[in-house]
Write a structure and sequence with these properties.
single chain, alpha/beta, Rossmann fold, six-stranded parallel β-sheet, 12 helices, 6 strands, 10% strand
């Protein structure tokens, strides 16, 4: 979809797959791809190559599901990162998998940890690690982050550094803890901590979560959602219809 291969797997299947992989010692990296992820995979930057290195890429956003349906290759359902984290926490508590939180806004990781413990009693959480701004250029901070990951002995690692920093970070840190499963979670820790309010459920169900985010952070998100996102969504939908028409036409000619 949009030049990126998406895995046809639902939330429950992905949760089981990630937990199984980590407890078996060969964890996987999942990218929850929304419309902005697909758009950035086309801008000639490194991002497409980062996404291709992931083991699993799923649809995070109604527009991605709509485009898949228009193309004639519907996906089994939405796998939003903000829903995946609590689902994984519940399963981790059930199966004894250890979780590490990395990044997030100041205080968000601590608040998210409290929320996850309340949601999933018995969940084993390693101490969260929140690297300072600019840590990527600081050898000492990078070494501290790597040591925190290594000593955590985590089975699941949630990385909240924003994209593409979290993808770059995961690619590097997987070598330190190869048995763990990794998820880039964006703003999810702030949602869990209550520092940022998520869109009402009805808005999410009809694909309007982006408009809620835009209302909450207009300066930061206007360019991404309005100037870049809407034109790209239209392009993606048109491409999807053409893809379906081409596939059906080819089928007719070969039948």
């Amino acid at each position: 979809m949009g030049g990126i291969d998406l895995d046809s797997i639902d939330m429950g299947g992905l949760v089981d797959q990630l937990i199984d992989a980590s407890l078996d010692g060969h964890g996987e990296w999942v990218v929850t791809a929304n419309l902005d992820h697909l758009r950035r995979c086309r801008d000639g930057s490194e991002y497409a190559e980062l996404v291709k290195r992931a083991d699993v890429v799923v649809a995070d956003g109604r527009p991605v599901l709509w485009a898949a349906r228009l193309s004639g290759t519907p996906l089994p359902g939405l796998v939003a990162g903000s829903d995946l984290v609590p689902a994984l926490a519940l399963k981790a508590a059930e199966r004894g998998a250890r979780v590490l939180l990395i990044g997030g806004a100041p205080g968000a990781a601590e608040g998210a940890a409290r929320a996850l413990r309340a949601l999933a009693p018995g969940l084993e959480l390693a101490d969260a690690h929140v690297p300072p701004m600019g840590f990527e250029e600081d050898a000492e901070e990078l070494a501290a982050l790597e040591e925190a990951v290594r000593s955590s002995d985590a089975d699941l690692v949630f990385v909240a550094l924003g994209s593409p920093r979290q993808e770059r970070c995961i690619l590097r840190l997987r070598e330190v803890l190869p048995g763990a499963s990794w998820v880039g979670v964006g703003i999810t820790l702030s949602f869990l901590s209550g520092d940022v309010s998520r869109a009402p459920r009805w808005m999410r169900s009809v694909g309007l979560e982006w408009s809620w985010r835009l209302i909450c952070e207009p300066r930061r998100l206007f360019k991404r959602y309005i100037l870049q996102g809407l034109p790209f969504a239209l392009t993606l939908f048109i491409e999807s219809v053409r893809m379906r028409w081409s596939s059906e036409r080819t089928g007719e000619l070969t039948s």
